[in-house]
Amino acid sequence: MTMATSGELTSGVSPPITGAGSPGGLRRIGSARWRKRNLTLDKITFFLVFLVIPVLFYIAFVVSPFVQAAYFSLTDWTGFTPAMNFIGLSNYGKLFTDDIFLQAMGNNILMAIVVPIVTLGLAMFFATLVTVGGSARGNIRGLRNSSFYRVISFFPYVIPAIVIGLIWSQIYDPNSGLLNGILTSLGLEQFTSFPWLGDVRTARWAVMFVIIWGLVGFYMVLFIAAIKGVPAEVFEAARIDGAGRFRTAVSITIPIIRENVQTAFIYIGILALDAFVYMAALEPGGGPDNTTLVMAQQLFTTAFTKGQFGYACAMGVVLAVVTLAYAGLVFAVNRIFGGKSEVGE
Amino acid sequence: MTQISQGAVPTAPPGERVPFEPAEPGEAPGTAGDKAVTGLSHGVLIIWSILVILPLIWVLMSSFKTSSEIFASPFALPENWSFDNYINAWTTAGIGSFFFNSVIVVFGALILTMLFGSMSAYVLARFSFPGSRALYYLMLAGLTFPIFLAIVPLFFVLRGIGLLNTLPGLILTYAAFAFPFTVFFLYAFFRSLSKSIAEAAAVDGAGEWRTFFQIMLPMAKPGLATVAILNFVGLWNQFLLPISLNTNPENYVLTQAMASFASQAGYSVDFGALFAAVVITVVPVLIIYLIFQRQLQGSVSQGVSK
């Protein structure tokens, strides 16, 4: 049972926790244990079950579909017949002359610009209020009772997005919805029966508002945690140098939590480039004049309603490329503004 | 820090406040201006809180109204506080059984992905071997590519193994898509655990299996709890995978059942039942959230900063 090297090891390890980082000898022995002659049954089954099986499972269900999608996008496959002709890039050629898909892509891109900036702007604003809105005398203090705001704002995060969409589709209802009820009772008669989700001028903003409503609290909590991680002396120094609250937030806080902001931009941008769930509840038909149609909806219909699987896979590839390009853009912007105090925009 | 002192402000003697910020002009330290900022902060946050809460209260109120009451006025309180809508939602819409399906699928996937994810993360964190770099990129791909890219082939993968439209098929798919995040998170966690403890266990004669299950896994409990919470919320809200891979109405999970119920309610105009269904869906999660909100918010901030 015992390892050949046990004699050396025991001496080095007897106080297990305190010896943690120090002994270089341990590491050397640790790797030596992995020489072939040490491959016992225990270790073989260990590697097989702990790594090989999970990774094969992951490859089968995640990696291989990604790869297959890239291949299918080069075919005219309809899925239910074995016939699959390789047609090169013509699906992509077709995509870039498909006005509806291009419109959907435009809608996605607009959302990927507006939703992150507004959501993260609001989240940062609220997080700043919560963390430095208290007394400016002595230590910088957070707002009293601010956990109340945190708990409330975070609510929407635990409500499934589809349900958020359903709630808001009722609120926007032209006749019995809460929004028009409030507006007309304030005397704004022009909003009687106003179709927020059915009017070309308002549909896309109404939809974006719902997404923003659902996400602000989540990122607010994130930023609060990040800001609380900043050492208090940093803020003290800023104050002694005469920086007001606003200046502190822009010049100190945001640059310090830059990495968190970047991660948030990527997460939320990916979400805005998808947006399928919200649209399924709010605008299943693509909205007035397709102003809220998103790529994901087109992909879903093309695949599961029309059965054009090859073409749908090409849409998937375009969606993936746009997503990666977006992430790359966020990284690039962060790097370009690396030396300055502004992040994002 | 240096940015500030290089900026417009000339060096101020310590302790003396320079009226820098136009929004709070020249106030004596910690008095009127301070209170104004505090009051304003509370005001803004209260307005936002109302904006979040009001729709939910409205849904709760509407869930007790009859459809004609809903159409008559969005504000009026229901005439009788009856639970008819809830009974309708529970029986005709079958929310109860879909809730049960969701629980089975989410917990099944959670157990599977936590087990596989923690095992792989442990191996990757503790041992270096050829190909571990490639595995890292493989996981990263799973995290960054949109599920939409995979959805069509996934449909045929599941059909090929006869698991399309079944709960086990959904469990496997959920688990697989939660796997890379679980590994990434726990990798960082296992890395931070002391290596020498595992070495000591080996010396004392524990095999790799025992070392993992009896020593390393219990030590990783806080990390496991965090990932489990994040995965739970993510999987519970999952919508695309079930509507594409699980189209048999008997096997619907809660999210897709809600969507289909909403489209039916639109035709039959049973909006009262729709509101009740929303409440039934939201309330259990909200209660769990209120109990665990501290842990959950902690998890979120940890999860994203990793």
Task: Provide an overview of this structure.
The complex is a heterodimer of chains A (345) and B (306). Chain A is mainly α. Chain A has two domains: 1-38, no CATH class; 95-336, MetI-like (MetI-like fold). Chain A is 67% helix and 0% strand. Chain A has 15 helices and no strands. The longest helix of chain A is centred in the middle third of the chain and has 34 residues, at 99-132. Chain B has 306 residues and is mainly alpha-helical. Chain B is built from 14 helices and no strands.
Radius of gyration of chain B: 27 Å
CATH fold label of the largest domain in chain B: MetI-like fold
**Could you say what the CATH architecture of the largest domain in chain B is?**
Orthogonal Bundle
- Structural class of chain B comes to mainly alpha
- What characterizes the major β-sheet of chain B? none
The parts of chain A where pLDDT drops under 50 for at least 5 residues are 1-36, 339-345
By CATH, the superfamily of the largest domain in chain A comes out as MetI-like
Beta-strand content estimate of chain B:
under 5%
Q: Could you spell the SSE succession of chain A in H and E letters?
A: HHHHHHHHHHHHHHH
How would you sum up the major sheet of chain A? none
Cα separation of the termini of chain B: 26 Å
Please describe the structure with a list of short key phrases separated by commas or semicolons:
heterodimer; A: 345 residues; mainly alpha; MetI-like fold; 2 domains; 15 helices; disordered N terminus; B: 306 residues; 14 helices; 0% strand
